[in-house]
Amino acid sequence: MSELSLKNKQASRGGESHIKLTAGDIVFNIINYAFFALFTLSCIFPFYYIFINTISNPELVTKGAITLIPKELTIQNYVSMGKVGDLWSSVVITILRTIIGTALMVGVSSLAGYLVTKKELWHRQFWYRFLVITMYFNAGLIPWYLNMSMLGLTDSFAAYIIPGIVSPYNIILVKTYIESIPAEIEESAFMDGASYWTIYRKIIWPLSKPILATIAIFGAVGHWNSFQDSLILNANSPELYTLQHRLYIYLNKSSNLGAIAASGTSSGDSAALASSFNTKIIQYTISMVTILPILCVYPFMQRYFEKGLMLGAVKG
Prior knowledge:
Elements: H1 3-17, H2 23-54, H3 58-63, H4 76-81, H5 85-115, H6 124-133, H7 141-150, H8 168-179, H9 183-191, H10 196-207, H11 209-225, H12 228-233, H13 243-252, H14 257-263, H15 267-276, H16 279-312
Helix pairs in contact: 2-16, 5-8, 5-11, 5-13, 8-16, 11-16, 13-16, 14-15
């Protein structure tokens, strides 16, 4: 390599590593970082504020003395809520529906998404278009309830699982993602004698983990936050109420929850428990119980979520 070309290469590298910013670039970066920092804080602060109130002295919370840091730390609020028996039955129901419903939805969406990519599928275009149409048209609330009732999905745990197994939007995301996988991989497997099921199980499924994690987050959040199906379909079965349904009931009757919690304790603790509970603390504590699980799970899935969502949205 000549000395002149070597110098040009070094100069080029130096220019790439030391980009000179203009005054306008610096101002833009400052405004940009400041805006997103404030935006992030505005998103985080409500959760933080609720949390510090739930672990602070109830008397100080009642007086509005908690602003930025917790005071006189205590977990008594959560211990007291644990004495409300029907709350924990709702937690179990919500966890079960989230795990079972999400697992079945991911499995069906993955398999259906793979099938609609196959030109050999009988009337593939018809089935795919029929699937897309269901995203935009529905019969409404009353026909939906009548349909669920005729199918025997009222006052039943199955009402939380069966209607959500097939998700057209998630199937489309999976289909688009699978189509981005090089076709040569599948063709080489066919040449080696692999069947569709073998290819799906050993090639498509492992390579689709990012998009599967993405739709798993969609499904888990949807199941965890679900409220309408519990309110309408299982209104006569309190043992099947979801956590969000309980939250709705407690927020409407929070002034009486102290007495409900106190009734499940010994007489010596009743007065203290009733005095420690008030409407604001009840609302804060129950809100954190419903929010924390999703907040804990999401950071571990975010890497797959971002990758899967971007690749799955390249083409439709």
